[in-house]
Amino acid sequence: MSNPFSESKNLIVFTGPSGVGKGTVLRAILGHHPELHLSVSATTRSPRPGEVEGKHYYFLTRSQFEAMVAQDELLEWAEFAGNLYGTPRQPLLDRIAQGQRVILEIELEGARQVRQTAPDALQIFIAPPSLEELETRIRKRGQDTDAAIARRLARAKVEIASAHEFDVQIVNDNFERTVKTLEEVLFPNSFGAAGASPSIAKALR
Ligand code: 5GP
């Protein structure tokens, strides 16, 4: 069977450490561009206050998640901070078949898997200005235990060290600027020469 994702430029992978502000930036972009769609992931994590089943995630038990893996219903999946997360394949196939652009907001291991299945997907990494700033943001969110924060920070170090694997890296030091830079990356034809913006960090140290 041919791989419907192999040449798809309509897949956009958005990765960055937990707490970097990916969700807030994405909500702004999706608010401005209703033609973009966000893939809803499956997870074994418990819902946070305010999170809605089918909107933020499909909240599954571990055995339900494992059944999806066994039936090859996930495009990619990974364990993150003790929970499983994955991208349901069928809704994505439906969107891609309709020529729609879909954003996957996923962690590093998943992004690496997507790189194998969909090498033409645009891979974007969003980085914090510093690890200290990231810790402050995670603590302010107040939704995680100390142990969970420690796991997320350890993972953040690994993710930041892998930023160079991505097509584009953006440092989220200013919300408005990050949204604008991301729009330039996603809609280069509306902004003149692709990738010409000096605000796109070409490399992270
Ligand atoms: P959170 O628990 O904060 O919602 O998400 C934790 C991490 O899991 C984030 O880095 C998020 O991007 C990632 N994540 C969310 N959905 C998926 C998914 O479907 N696959 C993978 N690989 N990671 C995901």
Explain what this protein looks like in three dimensions.
With 205 residues, this protein is α/β, with parallel strands linked by helices. The protein has a domain at 11-39 and 101-204: 3-Layer(aba) Sandwich (Rossmann fold). 38% of the residues lie in helices and 20% in strands. It contains seven helices and nine strands. The strands form two sheets. Strands 2-7-1-8-9 form a five-stranded parallel beta sheet, with helices on both faces. α1 crosses α7. The protein is globular and about 45 Å long. The protein starts with 10 loop residues before the first strand and ends in a 19-residue tail after the last helix. Residues 18, 41, 45, 76-78, 80, 85-87, 105-107, 109-110 line the site of guanosine-5'-monophosphate.
User: What fraction strand?
Assistant: 15-25%
Any idea what the CATH superfamily of the domain at 11-39 and 101-204 is called?
Answer: P-loop containing nucleotide triphosphate hydrolases
Instruction: Give start-end ranges of low-pLDDT stretches.
Output: 194-205
Q: What is the CATH fold-level name of the domain at 11-39 and 101-204?
A: Rossmann fold
User: Which structural class best describes the helix and strand composition?
Assistant: alpha/beta
pLDDT averaged over residues: 90
Small ligands present: guanosine-5'-monophosphate
* Overall helicity: 25-40%
| Helix-strand string | EHEEEHEEHEHEHHEH
Major sheet description: 5 strands, parallel
Strand order, sheet with most strands: 2-7-1-8-9
Shape: globular
User: How many strand units?
Assistant: 9
The total of helices stands at: 7
Terminal Cα separation, in Å?
41 Å
CATH C-level class of the domain at 11-39 and 101-204 is Alpha Beta
Please tell me the CATH architecture of the domain at 11-39 and 101-204 by its name: 3-Layer(aba) Sandwich
